[in-house]
Design goal:
With 308 residues, the protein is mostly helical. 78% of the residues lie in helices and 0% in strands. It has one domain. Helix 4 packs across helix 12, helix 6 packs antiparallel against helix 8 and helix 6 crosses helix 9. It is globular, with a radius of gyration of 21 Å. The termini are far apart.
Length: 308
């Protein structure tokens, strides 16, 4: 069996295992799960959906910036269309359709294999390092004694603060050196672009965390809110790097369950994570639908212009 077929098989097995596991767990805890779902009012769902929309918009801008670094400068509308549509490829069995759609778009717009590879690497560096380092920063700035005690880790408040500051510095350096070394040689280093990447991507992970914590039933303290933002980022990181889980399915929720144990019961965080996952998937499909409509309009206009 080839590596590609093995990966495809593992993804299918993983999806089935997650669906069976979630169904079994909810069936055995139906009444509790239903009660927790009832605490999520429509205003919370709408607010979370709007925050996730902002996250997706910033993510599209992140992809656009990675392409600008290799000297292709698509306008935002073009980036919005091809990123939103290609994103749906991760929900198709096989695991290559999202990448294949991107490769086709990049090739059609004249990117060499080298520049395409650079853009993909840069995008993934930003996504992986951003979710991990921003997550670490917010977790340790919140002084997570309960989580550390559960893990049998003893750190002084000064050490926790030091880890938070170190992760912040590494995040800044990651963005700076990625901008410096991945840009085309003929392009000058843009400190303005570096600053924009830092602000927009950091805000993106803050908004992602807020889109989850806004679903919680009780008013959180500042430290708890900071912890939630960090835990959400690390959960996303876990789901992103495990390649057998399409879209981080199951992995992201399991990571959230482990990180949020000091604050919520397993069934409680399971319900909120599931609701968050459904909202995230919904906004991806909605943006893809809007992109298809925009693409058809563009194609119709181009066809009319050719006829004229």
């Amino acid at each position: 069996m080839s590596k590609k077929k093995l990966l495809y098989f593992l993804k299918i097995v993983w999806i089935l295992a997650v669906l069976v596991g979630v169904s079994y767990y909810l069936a055995n805890n139906f009444n509790s799960a239903l009660n927790y779902f009832k605490t999520i009012g429509p205003e919370k769902l709408i607010a979370s959906l709007l925050l996730l929309t902002a996250v997706r918009i910033i993510t599209i801008n992140l992809v656009k910036n990675s392409l600008t670094s290799v000297n292709w400068q698509p306008n935002f509308l073009k980036a919005f269309i091809f990123v939103s549509i290609s994103q749906m490829g991760k929900y198709i069995p096989g695991g290559i359709w999202q990448i294949a759609a991107r490769l086709t778009t990049y090739k059609e717009n004249g990117l060499s294999n080298k520049d395409t590879g650079k853009a993909f690497i840069l995008e993934n560096i930003w996504m992986v390092c951003g979710s991990f380092l921003v997550g670490i920063f917010f977790i340790f700035i919140s002084q997570p004694e309960s989580l550390l005690n559960r893990l049998s880790i003893k750190l002084s408040p000064r050490s926790e603060f030091g880890i938070a500051i170190l992760s912040f510095i590494v995040w800044v350096l990651t963005l700076f050196f990625s901008e410096k070394y991945f840009r085309r040689q003929e392009r000058k280093l843009s400190y303005r672009k570096f600053l924009w990447n830092f602000v927009s991507q950091t805000v993106m992970w803050v908004l992602y965390g807020m889109s989850l914590l806004i679903l919680f039933p009780s008013q959180l303290s500042v430290k708890e809110a900071l912890f939630c933002i960090g835990a959400a980022g690390l959960s996303f990181f876990a789901g992103y790097v495990v390649i057998i889980a399409p879209g981080g399915l199951g992995i992201r929720e399991a990571a959230a369950g482990m990180l949020f144990v000091p604050m919520f019961s397993s069934i409680e965080i399971g319900v909120y994570s599931l609701a968050h996952r459904l909202l995230y998937t919904l906004i991806e499909f909605l943006l893809a639908g809007v992109s298809v409509i925009l693409l058809r309009r563009q194609n119709n206009l181009n066809h009319k212009n050719i006829k004229n």
